[in-house]
Structure formats: structure tokens, C-alpha cells
Design goal:
Strand content: under 5%
Strand order of the largest sheet: 1-2
Helix content: over 70%
Order of helices and strands: HHHEEHH
Distance between the termini: 18 Å
Low-confidence stretches: none
Number of strands: 2
Structural class: mainly alpha
Mean pLDDT: 90
Radius of gyration: 15 Å
Number of helices: 5
């Protein structure tokens, strides 16, 4: 189950990072963070293909790809309660570091390192 949570969060992380890259000025800290998370996601996919059935990993990855796109699009359009935005893009940007750490820690836990 942790594998699937990490897979969903990895797609969500890179969708938010893509929006961040388009809207904010790129910096080296973000680049380093993205490279570290990319290494963790590659290890996560390696774990998935070695411990799960390959077609289940591909189907679930495709569904999570679509789901994360819809989540980020909904936040970009805006979710309003009483005329004020419920979740802003700045909230998502602040959560990128925690999301990246969560993916890396789950990856380390799954591999048993």
C-alpha cells in the first residue's frame, strides 16, 4: 500500500514542480531537490517492477498520472469557500519539500535500507 501512496505522491510532486517551473524563477535549490526526488522515483519504479506485476504498475501509474493532473488543475482553477480560495498554489509550493522527503523515506523503507 505504501508503494501506491508513494507513486501517487511522486506524480503529484512532479506536476506541482512543473507548474512551479513555469510560474516562478528557477533556482539551483529546486533543481537539486527535483534531481533527488527523481532518483527516488526511479528507485520506486524499480521496486514496483521487481516486486509487483508489471502491468498493474503500468495501469496504476497511468491512473495516478491522470489523477494528479486533475488535482493540480483543480487547484489552479481555484476552490473557493465564501469567496476566498481554499487551497492556493503557494500552499502546494510549500509542500514540495515535504512531499519529496515523504517519497524518499517511503522508498528507503520499501527497499529496506
Amino acid at each position: 500500500m505504501l508503494f501506491y501512496f508513494a507513486l501517487l505522491f511522486s506524480f503529484l510532486y512532479f506536476k506541482i514542480a512543473r507548474v512551479y517551473k513555469k510560474e516562478e524563477k528557477p533556482n539551483t535549490n529546486m533543481l537539486i531537490q527535483n534531481v533527488i526526488v527523481l532518483a527516488a522515483v526511479i528507485a520506486l519504479f524499480a521496486y514496483g517492477f521487481t516486486h509487483k506485476t508489471w502491468y498493474v504498475v503500468v495501469i496504476v501509474a497511468y491512473l495516478f498520472f491522470i489523477l494528479s493532473s486533475l488535482i493540480v488543475s483543480a487547484v489552479q482553477l481555484g476552490i473557493f469557500i465564501d469567496g476566498k480560495p481554499f487551497v492556493k498554489l503557494s500552499h502546494l509550493y510549500r509542500s514540495l519539500a515535504f512531499l519529496g522527503m515523504f517519497i524518499a523515506f517511503i522508498d528507503v523503507y520499501l527497499w529496506g535500507i
